[in-house]
Specification:
With 129 residues, the chain is α+β, with helices and mostly antiparallel strands. It has one domain: Alpha-Beta Complex (Nucleoside Triphosphate Pyrophosphohydrolase), CATH 3.90.79.10. The protein contains 2 helices and 7 strands. Strand 5 and strand 6 form a beta hairpin. The protein is globular, with a radius of gyration of 14 Å. The protein binds 8-OXO-guanosine-5'-triphosphate (8GT) and magnesium ion. The site of 8-OXO-guanosine-5'-triphosphate has 17 residues, from strand 1, strand 4 and strand 6. This is 8-oxo-dGTP diphosphatase. Its EC number is 3.6.1.55.
């Protein structure tokens, strides 16, 4: 039995009601799909601390605070994930794909045009509701 991976995920919303998404590099788990930026929570870190660190590392944003939005448990078969999803509106900086990945600001009404990992379905439903 593999242990589930605790992942901090950010739904980052700007003042024009656009959400930041990034394309997962092909060699990674669920590669080629779009995601909400984030990454694994390390020992001794809160979810918020992990997310603030990951958003600087991955998309170059300086985040001041995050707010819990929802928790998702999903089993991909090859991997079990616990997505600890936070909303982020309090940030500064210009979003860049620091690791070379594509990043896009997308209107909420356009989000369903993009392909996300299976576990993200409930996040999309929540954002769109
Ligand atoms: N960041 C992120 N990960 C997601 C999302 N949806 C989803 O199923 N995941 C899964 O969460 C897991 C961990 O994400 P990650 O690859 O970003 O972790 P990380 O940045 O810390 O990667 P690393 O430690 O390998 O460098 C992956 O298995 C990924 O498929 C999402 O919207 N955003
Ligand atoms: Mg990541």
């Amino acid at each position: 039995m593999s242990k589930q991976i605790h992942v901090a995920v950010g739904v980052i919303q700007d003042s024009n009601d656009r959400i930041l998404i990034a394309k997962r590099p092909h060699h990674l788990h669920q590669g080629g799909k779009w995601e909400f930026p984030g990454g694994k929570v390390e020992k001794q870190e809160t979810t918020s601390e992990a997310l603030i660190r990951e958003l600087k590392e991955e998309v170059n944003l300086d985040v001041a605070s995050t707010t819990p939005l929802m928790e998702i448990h999903h089993d991909y078969g090859d991997k079990k994930v616990f997505l600890d999803v936070h909303r982020v509106t309090n940030f500064s900086g210009i979003a860049i794909g620091v690791e070379g990945q594509r990043v896009e600001w997308v209107k909420i009404s356009q989000l369903s045009q993009y392909e996300f990992p299976e576990a993200n379905k409930v996040i999309l439903e929540k954002i769109l509701s």
